[in-house]
Amino acid sequence: MSKTALFFPGQASQYVGMGKELYDHSDEVKSLYKFASDELGADIAALSFEGPAEELTRTRFTQPAILLHSLAALTIMKDNMPAFDYTAGHSLGEYVALAAVGALSYEDAIRAVVKRAALMEEACQNNPGTMAATIGLSIESVEDVCKRASAKGIVIPANFNSSSQIVISGSLDGVGEAVVLAKDAGAKRAVMLQVGGAFHSPLMASAKRGLEDYLAGITFNQPTKPVIANVTAKAVLDGEGIRNLLVEQVTAPVKWVQTMTYLKENGVTRIIEIGPGKVLGSLAKREMRPDAIINLDTLADIDTFTRSEM
Fold first, then answer.
1. Do 37 and 168 sit in the same domain of this protein?
2. DSSP conformation letters of 203-236
3. Could you tell me if residue 258 is inside a domain?
4. Catalytic residue among 13, 37, 70, 91
5. Under DSSP, is residue 26 helix (H, G, I), strand (E, B) or coil?
6. DSSP one-letter code for 10
7. Is residue 197 included in any domain, yes or no?
8. Are 156 and 129 in contact (CB under 8 A)?
9. 162 catalytic per annotation
10. Cα(145)–Cα(135) distance, rounded to whole angstroms?
11. Could you say which of 172, 192, 212 is where a domain stops?
């Protein structure tokens, strides 16, 4: 029997103007943005809709902005939500995946991501690092490259985005050395990324500790459907397990290709990506080859989809 998974994007999917139609369409969405702005101490609606792009790409703002876009789409769909069997989100997208199945309230998801983003930006400032993308090497090859490059500094695989697209993360020297070694190992591409720091690496340890303390005060419920955790690429169905995995996620690799493999093996043939951009849908097209990939980014996307589901 065919199954459906909801995907929620993470950092780097943002663009200036995202979510504005959704905001203009719904008072409930406006309330979410107001709540987030109060938590953040900045007008996240204005930043999302008007930029400037340089400010929107700051971790402190990017993460809440992407989260809000996805929550806004869920809010507008409401009773017209499609039937689905699993949810999964890339890095910060996991918080939306949890909210979609009732494990987190929308307000707690916003609170947690605002805190997470602030902690991660602070960790970036205190522990300078970077990331690089490798294309064309196997997971095993990238792991070997990182192991050898670690003689120059911390560097680990951070995002297993596909079977041949792997992002590495760590210190400036460690990542720089890994890029050289990756090219020597036959990578089609190995390029430094313009990012604020070394996400999903040990350099985020202070953010991990801070988030652990903060999440201790957040209520996690049993999800109504399985959520595939970034850390394990397996389904999780209990609140305490979710809390612990979100803490581990800060310094652990995002096992996204493993997540897609799990879903494919469990009968998922339709992917619905909810939020800005089409990054996760594009990865699924190559790795999962599902029967259908649907991207719900704009109000027009949602209207078209809702009519087609009736």
1. no
2. GGHHHHHHHHHHHTTS--PPPSS-EE-TTTSSEE
3. yes
4. 91
5. coil
6. -
7. no
8. no
9. no
10. 13
11. 192
Q: Pick the catalytic residue: 37, 48, 90, 200?
A: 200
* Active-site annotation holds for 282: no
**CA-closest candidate to residue 274, choices 255, 254, 301, 249:** 301
The Cα–Cα gap between 93 and 120 comes to 15
Tokens of 307: 């009519």
Same domain, 102 and 182: no
The answer on 182 and 66 residing in a single domain is: no
Residue 8, classed as helix, strand or coil, is strand
Q: What value does the mean pLDDT of the chain take?
A: 96
C-alpha to C-alpha distance for 79 and 64, rounded to whole angstroms: 24
Measured between alpha carbons, how far is 165 from 49 in angstroms, rounded to an integer?
30
Which amino acid belongs to residue 15?
Y
CATH classification of the domain holding 161? 3.30.70.250
If asked whether residues 43 and 175 sit together in one domain, one would say no
> Domain residues for 151?
130-192
Distance CA 147, CA 307 (A): 51
**Number of structural domains in the chain:** 2
Encoded amino acid at 75, one letter: T
pLDDT of residue 194: 83
Look-up of token digits 């009773």: 79
Q: Are residues 15 and 48 in the same domain?
A: yes
Q: Is the pTM of this model over 0.90?
A: yes
Whose tokens are 């996991």? That residue is: 94
In the sheet where 155-160 sits, what is the strand order? 155-160, 165-170, 130-135, 189-192
Tell me: do 79 and 12 sit in the same domain.
yes
For 161-202, write each residue's pLDDT tens digit: 999 999 999 999 999 999 999 999 999 999 999 888 999 999
Q: Which of 192, 212, 232 is the last residue of a domain?
A: 192
